[in-house]
Specification:
- With 162 residues, this protein is of the alpha+beta class.
- The chain has one domain: Aminopeptidase (3-Layer(aba) Sandwich).
- It is built from four helices and six strands.
- A six-stranded mixed β-sheet has the order 1-2-3-4-6-5.
- A hairpin with a 4-residue loop joins strand 1 and strand 2.
- The longest helix has 15 residues.
Amino acid sequence: MQQSDSSQVLNIYQEGINTDNASFLERAPNWKDFDNNHLNQPRLIAHTNESLIGWAALSLIQTTGQFGGVCEVSIYITTQHRNKGVGSLLLSSLVLLSEKHKIWTLEANIFPENIPSILLHKKYGFCIVGTRQKISMMKKGIYKGKWRDVTLMERRSKIVGI
């Protein structure tokens, strides 16, 4: 992922946000905020000959610093390319690269209604840790004004941090 990909990355991000099952955000951030909130590496894109169709990136878990090898996964695919293996390609690559960058735990916070995302993460070794109940209230869309749960999933590396 390069800065030159920023408009397509943010458009795909917004497309996911618009589903009401990908994020609590109302709109995608600007590129500067996106760039500041995600690790520089690994950041991945998937594309056809014509356009960017998906992306994946990691962000550090915001703590007092004890969890430097623990990151949160973000993965977004354009609507027309979902359920075609793009998510598998991105997530499997992200897992491999995260280990090369000495990251031992990946976590994902997924709305329970987003079954395809939960199944994708399970396919690559994530397990459900629990449910974060009524973690935040939606400010837009079909769930506006409703408190939402998220399913907390985690993948612990078998080669890093053991």
